[in-house]
Design goal:
globular, Methylamine Dehydrogenase, Chain H, about 0% helix, mainly beta, WD40/YVTN_repeat-like_dom_sf, four-stranded antiparallel β-sheet, Haem_d1_sf, Lactonase_7-beta_prop, 6-phosphogluconolactonase activity
Amino acid sequence: MSRRLLIARPGHIYLATYNSASPSLTIDLDLPVAGNPSWFAVSPADPSLLYTFDENTATTLLYKLDLAANSLTKVAERNDGSEGVCHLGLGKDGAIMVGSSWASGTMDIWNTSNGSLEFVKTMPSKDAVLDAGRVARAHQAVLDPTGRWFVVNDLGTDSLLVLDSAAAGVPIVNRVRVPDGSGPRHGVFYSSGGGDDAPATHYMLLCEKSNRVIVFALEYADEGIGFTPLGSYSTFMEGDAESERTAGAAAGEIALSRDGRHVYTSNRLLNSPTETIAHFRVLEGEQGPSLELVGETSTGGKHPRMFSVSRDGGELFVGNQEGEWAVVVLKRRDDGTLEEEPVAGIRMHELVKPGGDERGPMFVLEVV
């Protein structure tokens, strides 16, 4: 079976094919672009519409994807958002988009209805009183399962901001403080039962600075979502969190398996030849879910900023910014553990040539 991947690194967007029958990963398109398209948002209304940006400037872009023709065509380009956006989050119907800027500490609101790209406004992530003395670093806008609420993780103010996409101007309706020095980066909503559109029961937050996952219980109300912390879990095995190997580590990405029974995070900036994906088992209890760290699996490279779960849940697609392997495909076993050796991949020298930006992929996602 063949699956198509969208891969991006500074100066390049790629389309690739992963063949799972006789595992291999091949590049079909290498599209040179200006700047660093480090994240993409796929329209839920039309999966051929891909929103991205140049992380080095204030440019936001819209591309049209044609997998049959192996082509990406630029449809729109705007330069009125924030500089340094690092994530885009789309609403459930694709009509609204929130851009999170780490560099500017702001959130851009876009009208993306009917495949458009219209700038609405920029909001500061920082509260002048509550966050006095802190530098805001908005890093991700995560849409909840109901499609109404965005949660923005602010790495600099150690805060979670709840935005109401159903209200005019998409206002901030709640601010949730996490322990100082946590550095909230990315998160996932989790549901204990219920359908796809039901309110989530919990939120799992990956913290870059503390290298921990914090699990919150959620309480929905007309005015927003309340967060109650239930537990905090290191992304390293017991005894390793304070070791020389993990000094200076910075957690990168978090993903939930399709069945909701497993959580994966990436461990970056380790003092080791390669870096890892950590695997947690989700344990349901009377007080809510807890996490059990099962182990770590090498990514074959360094600085895995982003990875994603395949659409059928059978693999993890991992991008490395440095090291021997640029992209690897890690196979998931039935028990959620990852096979130690990649089943397929692309070596760094196949993508990165001397003389340009020599960083490897920052984004990899299966597309349809």
